[in-house]
Amino acid sequence: MAKQTTAQQGAGTTRNPGTTRRGGIFAFPNPVNEYAARITAGLVVAAAVATLATGFGPGLVLIAGGFWLRVLFGPRISPFALLSVKVLAPRIGRAKLVPGPPKRFAQGIGAGLGTVAAALYFLGFGTAAWVLLGLLIVAASLEAFLGFCLGCAIFGLLQRRGMIPADICEACNNIELRRL
Fold it and tell me: Is the separation of the CB atoms in 75 and 82 below 8 Å?
């Protein structure tokens, strides 16, 4: 069996033609396995609901930290992403490949929300922190259970408006690349 590239390992399958991936420690796979992303979102939902239900403020730091690990390093370091990519998604079978940049953007939104929620909690604004965690739960639930990535939709909107350069995700702009 041929050795997989880092991108193939991160996506859980082979790469789509016409996609790119920057190497290095801060690399993010492109494309990504949609099923692995949805499983990761489900794990985030479970952790966030447990944090909210118990009122365990330090859980906000763990949730934010997980998002930061995924946005900075892809699935290589994050416990949730590793579990999703290496263990759970392969059990589903064939991967469904989608562009990586919108997924990374969505992880960045989660990192921002989680970080602000943790900061608010430790600054004494617990109610505001729990509201932000609730928003994160809604967004992650949409991804996990309905396959709708809110961050990806925002990415697409910003790209169509010219706020994100077209070359960041050519497959997002070109329907033909998505079919390959």
Answer: yes
* pLDDT confidence of residue 19: 40
Short-list 97, 110, 109, 108, CA closest to 10: 97
Between the two ends of the chain, the Cα-to-Cα distance in Å is 23
User: Per residue in 32-70, is it b (16+ CB within 10 Å) or e — as a string?
Assistant: bbbbbbbbbbbbbbebbeebbeeeebebbbebbbbbbbb
Q: State the pLDDT confidence band at 23, using cuts at 50, 70 and 90.
A: low
User: For the whole model, what pTM was predicted?
Assistant: 0.83
- Confidence class of residue 93 from pLDDT cuts 50, 70 and 90? confident
